[in-house]
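TICKET: design request
STATUS: open
ATTACHED STRUCTURE:
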């Protein structure tokens, strides 16, 4: 279904809302990645998400709401810190894991006693959630949505990615794919929980640790894999994986690694100055990585898809710089590398 990048087409949204009301699946853009949405109040529709993705039932979904006012309808005992974070970062790329209310079904929560809630800022996503709310006269309506990719694959940042991965009916799996252009940020939301009285990051994203700490007025920890996996499927090591083996290499060692792998055809993602110094015949595709954490994240999934689709037999990615602002990018690259080796059969 055609749309245009930044201007929301009311007709497209009306059609998508009808699809949701009928219990269908709508792929829609958000500022992070595209979501595969269903009306959160229709269990059959929510179940269809798991079938389309091929995702295990125990992996919870995120509820997308129009604003903080809707949260009380899905969650209870909302901590003061959660209110502070909603005020500061919503609408935006932040998911809060909160004690669940009765309206959040087991299918949404993966049977846990918590529910993940987020309020996206993307204009299409907002129009869709609000449209669903107006159609049924309930402003607290929510869209349950994971990322719109097959389980274990790279998240989509364009409608074309969703078409390639899941496809639109009748030949594909999704009832309606809204084309709202490229996702502005390009990696999934930061997820936090409030377990044990502290704010913890379950999945790093564009909003980083110090930004969160300023908003809540206390230190924020990165949860260890041991405490969160497999509750957060995005934290399973083999997430966001390309189908070809992906290896992370220090930038200064890249040229030597490329040579060592000759004559294997390679796809390389590295800073442009590192690419310029490569002199090898076995380069199938070289892509210049973004120089800032924002640019890097924005382009990453599209670049990984292009490398995966190239003639390369193996992918080499130069480690990005270190530091807090790069944490989310490092996290996704680590998981892509682990998943591509097939080490984690449980991958989301
Ligand atoms: O940016 C995003 O968050 C995108 C867009 C579409 O909103 N969504 C997304 O959904 O990345 P998904 O399902 O691919 O990842 C959601 C993550 C999963 O890792 C899931 O385990 C976690 O959120 N999650 C959801 N509810 C949770 C809960 N109650 N406790 C812990 N983790 C939860
Ligand atoms: Mg996902």
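STATUS: resolved
RESOLUTION: sequence designed for all positions
ATTACHED SEQUENCE:
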């Amino acid at each position: 279904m055609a749309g245009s990048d930044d201007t929301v087409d009311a007709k497209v949204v009306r059609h998508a809302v009808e699809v949701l009301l009928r219990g269908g699946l709508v792929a829609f853009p958000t500022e992070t990645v595209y979501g595969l949405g269903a009306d959160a109040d229709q269990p059959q529709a929510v179940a269809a998400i798991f079938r389309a993705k091929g995702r295990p039932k125990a992996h919870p979904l995120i509820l997308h709401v129009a604003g903080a006012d809707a949260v009380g309808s899905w969650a209870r005992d909302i901590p003061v810190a959660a209110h502070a974070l909603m005020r500061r970062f919503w609408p935006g790329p932040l998911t809060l894991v909160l004690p669940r209310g009765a309206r959040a079904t087991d299918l949404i929560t993966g049977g846990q006693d918590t529910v993940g809630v987020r309020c996206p800022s993307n204009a299409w996503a907002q129009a869709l959630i609000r449209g669903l709310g107006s159609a049924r006269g309930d402003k607290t309506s929510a869209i349950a949505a994971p990322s719109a990719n097959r389980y274990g694959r790279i998240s989509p940042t364009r409608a074309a990615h969703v078409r390639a991965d899941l496809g639109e009916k009748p030949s594909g799996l999704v009832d309606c794919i809204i084309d709202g252009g490229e996702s502005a940020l390009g990696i999934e939301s930061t997820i936090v929980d409030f377990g044990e009285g502290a704010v913890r990051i379950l999945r790093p994203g564009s909003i980083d640790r110090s930004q969160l700490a300023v908003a809540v007025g206390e230190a924020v920890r990165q949860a260890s894999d041991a405490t969160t996996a497999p509750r957060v499927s995005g934290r399973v090591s083999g997430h966001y994986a390309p189908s070809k083996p992906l290896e992370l290499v220090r930038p200064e060692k890249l040229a030597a690694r490329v040579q060592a792998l000759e004559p294997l055809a390679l796809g390389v993602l590295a800073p442009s100055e590192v690419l310029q110094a490569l002199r090898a015949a076995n380069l199938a595709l070289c892509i210049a990585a973004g120089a800032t954490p924002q640019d890097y994240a924005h382009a990453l999934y599209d670049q990984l898809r292009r490398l995966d689709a190239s003639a390369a037999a193996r992918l080499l990615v130069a480690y990005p710089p270190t530091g807090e602002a790069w944490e989310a990018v490092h996290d996704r690259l680590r998981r892509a590398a682990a998943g591509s080796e097939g080490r984690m059969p449980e991958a989301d």
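CLOSING REMARK: The mean pLDDT is 92. Residues 30, 32-33, 35, 59-62, 93, 95, 97, 109, 112, 114-116, 118, 145-147, 188-189, 191, 202, 231-234 surround threonylcarbamoyladenylate (ligand 1) (CB under 6 Å).
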